[in-house]
Amino acid sequence: MELDAPMLAISGSLRRDSINSAALRAAGRAAARDGLSVVIDDSPRALPHFNPDLEPFAPEAVQRFRQACAEAHGVLLAVPEYTFGIPGTFKNALDWLVRSGSLYRKPVAVLYVAPRGRGQHLRATLAHVLKAHNADVRSHRVPIARRDLDENGEITDPKIVADLRALVAALSRRSAVAEAAGA
Q1: So where are the chain's domains?
Q2: Could you tell me if 61 and 48 are in contact, meaning their C-beta atoms sit under 8 angstroms apart?
Q3: Which of 16, 18, 38, 61 is the most exposed place for a label (fewest CB within 10 A)?
Q4: Could you say which residues of the chain have pLDDT below 70?
Q5: Tens digits of per-residue pLDDT, 39-92?
Q6: 3-class SS string, the chain
């Protein structure tokens, strides 16, 4: 069930060897087997600091990021917990999206890769922030450890890949339902 626009995947990590980013790449490869397109957007790295005074004249990078989120049929987020909350660069990106409504009623899947017992502060904080966007958010846990990465930093474990594929398929179904309902 290919949709006109791709799913948008955004990592909340800036680390070069991020497990969150590796999970999004693996999800994209797995989804391609089902004819689904997942585009990884690394715009948050380049966005200026949020400033409400700039809202009427949002910089071009912000406009492109907002448009990518608005046009995507669904958004997949993978975010690490940092100092009991959301990493600053990712929070900044979310701040730029509030007023634009780019995530309003948008199907959003939040992927948590931390093992059980870790990341609970992030989950609470991120849920609170995404509520301000009025996004249709569902959380998914797919624990991934550094040992699950191959020598190239990619995830190839069949069980993890199957879980990621199922996650993107579920997001795609939610997106199709939202589109049919005119959301």
Answers
A1: 7-180
A2: yes
A3: 16
A4: 1-5, 183
A5: 999 999 999 999 999 988 899 999 999 999 999 999 999 999 999 999 999 999
A6: CCCCCCEEEEECCCCCCCHHHHHHHHHHHHHHCCCCCEEECCHHHHCCCCCHHHHHHCCHHHHHHHHHHHHCCEEEEECCCECCECCHHHHHHHHHHHCCCCCCCCEEEEEECCCCCCCHHHHHHHHHHHHHHCCEEEEEECCCCHHHECCCCCECCHHHHHHHHHHHHHHHHHHHHHHHCCC
